[in-house]
Amino acid sequence: MLKEKNRQVHVVFTGRMEVYEDGIHIGQLRNYIAENHLQENLSLLGIIPRGHQLCIMKHAAAVIQPSLFEGWNTTVEDAKSLQLPVIASGIAVHKEQLQDKGFYFNPEDENELAELLDTLSGTSKDKPFYGDNKERITTFARTFLNIFHKTQAAVFLKQDFFKLNNAGK
To answer: Which residues pair with 90 in a beta bridge?
Structure first.
């Protein structure tokens, strides 16, 4: 679709690419890429070292997370830390993770994804997309410490309770 509009977008796929169930998914994808002359627009890298993945992400215009069912995704968190927009399937966990900063698409509708790719391919990286990282880190640290302190208080209360109950035995 984007190629028909003469839009140059390059998408890099990373992660496990072994064959599943009937063995045709990756083969079909490779055939589709070849038949539609998309070799210049798509790269299937498979599993790569984490440092390489982060380097690719750092230089990307956006990160795509097309999952149909995945839980909380660390790639989304990486993208947020790198100040990259995330194009994600509209499942509940992505909406919770990205809130109003996500660009959502129906994973069954390639046109929605193509429109978002087209829109975000020229995104400027001049200003932070998710706000100040220092502020986000500080907020996270405070929340984490709050949870830790509440957990520690609960542990101490539980220990004191057992001491009191076992004192007369």
So the answer is: none
